Amino acid sequence: MANAKIPPLTRLDEHDLLTLGRLSIEPEVMLGNSRISDHFDVSFFETNFWLMWCTTFAFQPWHSAVEFRRYLLRFAHMSSGFNQLHGIMRTVYNQYDSMILPLRRWLDEHGVAFRPNIQVTDLLFDESGAENRVRGIVCKTAHRRLEIPVATADKVVVTLGSMTAGSSLGSMDHPAALTTVDSTGAWALWKTIAAGRPEFGHPSVFADHIDESKWLSFTVTLRDPALFWLIRDLTGNMPGEGGLITFPESSWLASIVLPHQPHFIGQPADVQVLWGYGLRVDQPGDFVGKPMSACTGREILTEILGHLRIEAEAAHILEHANSIPCLMPFITSQFMPRSQGDRPHVSPDGWKNLAFTGQFCELPDDVVFTVEYSVRSAQNAVYALLGLDLAAPDVYKGQHDPRIVYKAFSALRDR
């Protein structure tokens, strides 16, 4: 597992602790669009704290210092158990089966119409009155262009951007290709409607930096339990009970997760599923000698088995495995350095029947890359459009509890 290019991990020093403290109390406007690396020495990114932080949340040194600050405050109460990911809530099945599928069924039962294979390309606006409004939705199918009129009483909710746009799948014997064009149209739609309308934000800040927002994940389907039991014996964690297993000496900075089994509804009893990812996808691997982004599923699994030091069992495991890489060009685009106004408000100023949701609208104090952010933005959008005297639940602010602050400082000092 040794890699001579990577120095040994160290603890946070006093300078790092002071910088973390300063970032926690400094107003966001003072940080501007600075990067995390603008505030720390290179040695900070070789500490145990940073290793756990970046692999848990997928931060890179060049990501937004403002978002880093929000995470510090949002998860202050979890600092003491950070190394074991205590406090993380997990669904029994994968998130689609546990959350999306039940929600979809509920919406179907309540008459919501889903129209597949239709891409929204533009909105038509009426900007002649005291308050602007959307008057039409422009769509296209494989065969024609459509314009859907929006009546005076209708409401329009737009999900801005997409972290998973452009994602491509490989196979056991083929790597995933890097796609720079978003075929979903999510980014193109935001760029189109934001042109000349600063209140709609600035999508290029997030969408036009693929080299800084891409990484690769992979799933492994196993028809033999050998790998699961070997990992259990090495880590002491039963599937679904432990957190990430990160390989700190991995040139890819790779991590894997063994979720509770079955991970999918209908998964056969003799099948196990795990997943993982790497944050340094352009670095050569330590065992296969190729960048992760250029590797087949077989090569990625071979690299992981090498770090697990189970080469003797590798051939047997590979024979009963199907490893699928997924390269995601926009997956951390929401972390790109930003300034005030780059993310629009859920209810844009001056608009009557329009609201934004998703990871690229602005919710003060909350953190992106979470299910909560999407849910909270949707709640705010619906309440505002319908004029309801309701509000999404407040964001937990443990930084105002002296006991939480003391525990967080004590934990960080020991990292």
Folded structure, characterized:
The protein is of the alpha+beta class and 415 residues long. Among the domains are: 14-89 and 398-413, no CATH class; 215-328, D-Amino Acid Oxidase, Chain A, domain 2 (2-Layer Sandwich). Helices cover 29% and strands 14% of the residues. The strands form three sheets. It has a six-stranded antiparallel beta sheet with strand order 5-10-6-9-8-7. β2 (133-140) and β3 (145-149) form a beta hairpin. The protein is globular. The two termini are 22 Å apart. 32% of the residues are buried. Mean pLDDT is 91; it is low at 1-7.
Brief overview:
It is an enzyme of class 4 (lyase). The chain has 13 helices and eleven strands. The chain has helices at residues 14-25, 28-31, 48-57, 65-74, 95-109, 186-194, 204-207, 210-213, 226-235, 297-307, 314-319, 371-385, 402-413, and strands spanning 119-126, 133-140, 145-149, 156-159, 168-169, 215-222, 245-246, 254-257, 272-278, 321-328, 354-357.
Helical coverage, percent range: 25-40%
Computed Rg: 23 Å
- Do you know the CATH topology of one domain? D-Amino Acid Oxidase, Chain A, domain 2
Work out the strand percent: 5-15%
Structural class computed from helices and strand pairing: alpha+beta
The mean pLDDT is 91
